[in-house]
Amino acid sequence: MAHFDTEYQRLEASYSDSPPGEENLLVHVPEGSKSPWHHIENLDLFFQRVYSLHQKNGFTCMLLGEIFELVQLVFVVAFTVFLANCVDYDILFANKFVNHTDSSKVTLPDAFLPVDVCSARIRDNVFVIFILIISGVFWLHRLIKFIYNICCYWEIRSFYINALKMTMADIPYFTWQEVQARIIEIQKEHQICIHKKELTELDIYHRILRFKNYMVAMVNKSLLPVRFRLPLLGNTIFYTRGLKYNFELIFFWGPGSLFENEWSLKPEYRRGGNRLELADRLSSRILWIGIANLLLCPVILIWQILYAFFSYTELIKREPGSLGARCWSLYGRFYLRHFNELDHELMSRLSKGYKASSKYMNCFMSPLLTVVAKNVAFFAGSILAVLIALTIYDEDVLAVEHVLSSITLLGVCITICRSFIPDKHMVYCPEQLLKVILAFIHYMPDHWQGNAHRYETRDEFAQLFQYKAVFILEELLSPVITPFILIFCLRRKSLEIIDFFRNFTVDVVGVGDTCSFAQMDVRQHGHPAWMSAGKTEASIYQQAEDGKTELSLMHFAITNPHWQPPRESTHFISHLKEKVHREAAAGQQGIIAENPEFTSTHSLQSDSEPRSLIANLLMGPPSLASLHLGREGSIHPLSIGVSEGASALYSISPVSTSLHLRGSYPSARLPRPDHPAVVAGRAMTGSGTDARTISSGSSAWEGQLTSMVLSEYASTEMSIHALYMHEMHKQQSRGEVSRHTWHRQESDESSESVSEDIEAARNFPRSSTFPTTSHREGPAQPSGSQQRYGGASDPVSGSFRAQRTPRMPMGGWSEENQMGRHHDPVPEEGSEDELPPQIHKVT
């Protein structure tokens, strides 16, 4: 139990998420006036299903998708058994002749075995019988789950039609923000949640993303995933869908998990007195789940191989270079994800950065590999050209054995070789590409800046942006590797996991137990190096890494302009926007004073200060109007600088290409003062509806176009703020000791340096990650709407006592035997498929 002797400090209560005076509100509605959606008990699953139905474009599309999933499972199993037991491959490969009375031509049915022979072969094969039984049980489970989900989603369909006043045909033309705005509006009438008179955007996000916020926080604090150091591959991060499924099974919804339901942590995990016992219990549970994975490994492995074969074989034949394409890894999606960011918001952001990311990775073509690829392509092309010429001269050449196969393989070889040959007309600017990538992904380790040309940076970025072939290989190996990760790696983190959930769980009225990081409170979890200096009280242990709190706060505020953050967060947002606008205005004045062509070139070469960065953005062509989406959702002109310069980012966005905005609006400026988007924005400012969610107009397409354009402005605004925050962080970090958040090095500072750190952080709450004692003045007073768990406090005075303990590996800080920081998607599985679905309504 040497690895269990850690002690973590509890966090004080955060701000109230309820409106003033409603902290302990319980709304009473007369029995006769209750709606069918009054007091929905499991709001988590309800909102998850509302969101899922919207993302799946309505009930009919969702129903067909579920049906085809069931049919697909039956097809994969039945087709595999048929190929293994009911085909005579000697006839198929012409190794055995068939006597025909009417024709000498061999047909495909001739290679099929008779039904009685096929059945006998299946009955005599014990392994096939075992596979069929397992598959049948799994299929019946999916069928029952399908029937239950259809009943639940029928109620969600009724909710859309009767409560939200949206038909299923119109759902694809409504943005999620508009659906959310209507949910907030009908709360006053239907009282979906009886604990709060009004719902907020953050309440809904917390309900949908409760468990994902915990996962994002654990990745941010280096608890997950597991990092290995392999002999030839170096530092490797292994994080697959199977491993993610097991993590969620252990932590959130499986038997014996840490949560007693979807919204409440079990009481024993809220107290710190029995943490060692709970850690032992969790360790034992992880061991048994690991053993179960090991026993089921053969079945899962066979399924993974078959599914990958049927899914990717046709794609590889049609597009051989697809395996050389890249995708965002599952770990990358968690590392780059903001707190309170929905799946479609994350995918939209990462998709915009895909093209720049691919170009950046292509900057690192190996010269040696390029020479080999060119010559192999030449030889393969020569042979292929001869075969094609002979085929054109006489088609009987195709009847020669292996000629057709040779043509196919040579074509695949040439396609693969071309993927390793760079475009000779391409100019590589890795630093600028990395800055463009940062504008969309928003997160990047400090040591990448200025080192974009180095292979070390490229290798680390490859962990976020991996080859499709690597993703497929990891998924195939996942059934074999996952049990060993659970048994030998995750068990050692049991106490850290227990402490994490206790210290970073907060009870919010009307929401339940949520991750405290998801509150995006700069006072509790801000980082002084990310423009939170003077606004945060967080210790090193409490700080979110990589500026996650600050960037998530800005993203959520820009995405949901009607949300009212707490006072400290409001001051942070206002201060940041004021600085960005001031630098933008100053940068615009400098641009006007200089030659435009010279300024454009010069600004690309200078990244020493935020002003030059903003000036660089200002040089883009004015493809969009000078608009600024205000806090109240209204559209009004901003200082010409930021909004005009935002087009530099907008021009590389995929949406700009699909919308063809330059040709759709005069002078490529959007929108005009009399345009429906502006009129609707002004109208909705007073009515409490987000202007970005307007889908009204003369047609469904016009409403959808307006929503996409306004959403693009929000994305551009967030990109500018993210770039500015990183530039300010870079300046503030100069002269300080580098603390890379990508790979935490071993920490072995002397006691004198620790004392200096404590002296410098005199006004901050002490963290138990420091080997010193601390005393919190005054009792801990939780707010009326939130309550935090964990920690040891004096039962009389209420003061907190932190013991003198060595540093342990939370957030990557350790005195010894500490591996590098562990980081993390891969289509995201729907939450409704992973959690036990339950909706109880009190009518």
Automatic annotation (TrEMBL):
<dbReference type="Pfam" id="PF04109">
    <property type="entry name" value="ATG9"/>
</dbReference>
<feature type="compositionally biased region" description="Basic and acidic residues">
    <location>
        <begin position="1"/>
        <end position="10"/>
    </location>
</feature>
<comment type="similarity">
    <text>Belongs to the ATG9 family.</text>
</comment>
<dbReference type="GO" id="GO:0061709">
    <property type="term" value="P:reticulophagy"/>
</dbReference>
<dbReference type="GO" id="GO:0034727">
    <property type="term" value="P:piecemeal microautophagy of the nucleus"/>
</dbReference>
<feature type="region of interest" description="Disordered">
    <location>
        <begin position="731"/>
        <end position="843"/>
    </location>
</feature>
<keyword id="KW-0967">Endosome</keyword>
<keyword id="KW-0813">Transport</keyword>
<keyword id="KW-0256">Endoplasmic reticulum</keyword>
<keyword id="KW-0007">Acetylation</keyword>
<keyword id="KW-0812">Transmembrane</keyword>
<feature type="transmembrane region" description="Helical">
    <location>
        <begin position="286"/>
        <end position="310"/>
    </location>
</feature>
<feature type="compositionally biased region" description="Basic and acidic residues">
    <location>
        <begin position="736"/>
        <end position="747"/>
    </location>
</feature>
<comment type="function">
    <text>Phospholipid scramblase involved in autophagy. Cycles between the preautophagosomal structure/phagophore assembly site (PAS) and the cytoplasmic vesicle pool and supplies membrane for the growing autophagosome. Lipid scramblase activity plays a key role in preautophagosomal structure/phagophore assembly by distributing the phospholipids that arrive through ATG2 from the cytoplasmic to the luminal leaflet of the bilayer, thereby driving autophagosomal membrane expansion.</text>
</comment>
<keyword id="KW-0072">Autophagy</keyword>
<dbReference type="GO" id="GO:0034497">
    <property type="term" value="P:protein localization to phagophore assembly site"/>
</dbReference>
<dbReference type="GO" id="GO:0005794">
    <property type="term" value="C:Golgi apparatus"/>
</dbReference>
<keyword id="KW-0597">Phosphoprotein</keyword>
<protein>
    <recommendedName>
        <fullName>Autophagy-related protein 9</fullName>
    </recommendedName>
</protein>
<keyword id="KW-0445">Lipid transport</keyword>
<keyword id="KW-0832">Ubl conjugation</keyword>
<dbReference type="GO" id="GO:0000421">
    <property type="term" value="C:autophagosome membrane"/>
</dbReference>
<keyword id="KW-0472">Membrane</keyword>
<dbReference type="GO" id="GO:0006869">
    <property type="term" value="P:lipid transport"/>
</dbReference>
<dbReference type="InterPro" id="IPR007241">
    <property type="entry name" value="Autophagy-rel_prot_9"/>
</dbReference>
<comment type="function">
    <text>Phospholipid scramblase involved in autophagy by mediating autophagosomal membrane expansion. Cycles between the preautophagosomal structure/phagophore assembly site (PAS) and the cytoplasmic vesicle pool and supplies membrane for the growing autophagosome. Lipid scramblase activity plays a key role in preautophagosomal structure/phagophore assembly by distributing the phospholipids that arrive through ATG2 (ATG2A or ATG2B) from the cytoplasmic to the luminal leaflet of the bilayer, thereby driving autophagosomal membrane expansion.</text>
</comment>
<keyword id="KW-0496">Mitochondrion</keyword>
<feature type="transmembrane region" description="Helical">
    <location>
        <begin position="399"/>
        <end position="421"/>
    </location>
</feature>
<dbReference type="GO" id="GO:0034045">
    <property type="term" value="C:phagophore assembly site membrane"/>
</dbReference>
<feature type="transmembrane region" description="Helical">
    <location>
        <begin position="126"/>
        <end position="144"/>
    </location>
</feature>
<dbReference type="GO" id="GO:0000422">
    <property type="term" value="P:autophagy of mitochondrion"/>
</dbReference>
<keyword id="KW-1133">Transmembrane helix</keyword>
<keyword id="KW-0968">Cytoplasmic vesicle</keyword>
<dbReference type="GO" id="GO:0005789">
    <property type="term" value="C:endoplasmic reticulum membrane"/>
</dbReference>
<feature type="region of interest" description="Disordered">
    <location>
        <begin position="1"/>
        <end position="20"/>
    </location>
</feature>
<feature type="transmembrane region" description="Helical">
    <location>
        <begin position="368"/>
        <end position="393"/>
    </location>
</feature>
<keyword id="KW-0333">Golgi apparatus</keyword>
<dbReference type="GO" id="GO:0055038">
    <property type="term" value="C:recycling endosome membrane"/>
</dbReference>
<feature type="compositionally biased region" description="Acidic residues">
    <location>
        <begin position="748"/>
        <end position="758"/>
    </location>
</feature>
<dbReference type="GO" id="GO:0031902">
    <property type="term" value="C:late endosome membrane"/>
</dbReference>
<feature type="transmembrane region" description="Helical">
    <location>
        <begin position="67"/>
        <end position="87"/>
    </location>
</feature>
<dbReference type="GO" id="GO:0031966">
    <property type="term" value="C:mitochondrial membrane"/>
</dbReference>
